[in-house]
Amino acid sequence: MRMRKCWLGGLLVAAAAMWGMGAGAQTTKAAVANDAPAKAMLATDPWEITAFFQGGVGTGDRDDFEFTAAGVRLGKVITDQHLKGFLRGQFEYAGELMPYWQAFTPPPHIGNVRVVNSSGQTVGYTQEPFGGGTYTGFSITPIILRWNFVPGKRFAPWIQGAGGLVYTTHKFPPDVLVVHGQPGGTSVFNFTPQFGVGVHYFLKPRRSLDFEANAVHISSSSLGDKNPGVNASVQFQIGYTWWH
Fold first, then answer.
1. Is the dihedral of CA 181, 232, 57, 139 positive or negative?
2. Adjacent-strand bridge partners of 158
3. What is this structure's pTM?
4. Which of 231, 112, 232, 106 lies closest to 174 in space, CA to CA?
5. Which domain holds residue 25?
6. What are the two backbone dihedrals, phi and then psi, of residue 183, each rounded to the nearest 5 degrees?
7. What single string gives the DSSP state of each residue in 218-230?
8. Mean pLDDT of residues grouped by 10 in the chain (244 residues)?
9. Which terminus of the chain is more exposed, N or C, with fewer CB under 10 A?
10. Do 82 and 160 fall within a single domain?
11. Same domain, yes or no, for 83 and 204?
């Protein structure tokens, strides 16, 4: 009888010890996640879902253009850490949808248009009506290739290259007006190749505030008869991310 009691007592002590070890491990993991949420989250090759707002300006001959947009991003970290030194990090694939996209350009006006001969030489100038004003549309960026550098406790920086498409309800960018239904002008579809840098700041485990800056080129790739484009714009983005 004594032996049976000793045996049962030993089992209870062992079970209690194992439960304590498990609880202690969970407590340790929770403490690590709270103290270094960026490291803890990126170590799991997670998904990210982001809501964001974006704004920016054109540069060069488009410095009187302004842009705003809002949308959502879905991304997946698909590798563990690779490379060495300051380049060490993880690869992520993502995509963005912006149901709200607007460009604010100078109002319609009369401008000078160069006249050339058959040899391409300038023979003079004429005045033509140009379009302008606010352009509304939506944008999709199905290819975002992001490299997440090794995170700190709360900061996780990245660089990325991306390519997308923007549709506007009127031909963009504004150029010499053409009669509705007649060929000419620019295009309602434009491509948006871009390069950017950014950082996640983890407010707590599974939640981060994001800051991003992108250089965006806008061009129809000659889908329209004219392709003046926006050679470069600088777009800044702020977002809030849920990690899973």
1. positive
2. 148, 198
3. 0.82
4. 106
5. 1-35
6. -70, 160
7. EB-TTSSS----E
8. 51 49 48 80 96 97 96 97 95 98 95 84 88 96 98 97 96 86 85 98 96 97 87 97 97
9. N
10. yes
11. yes
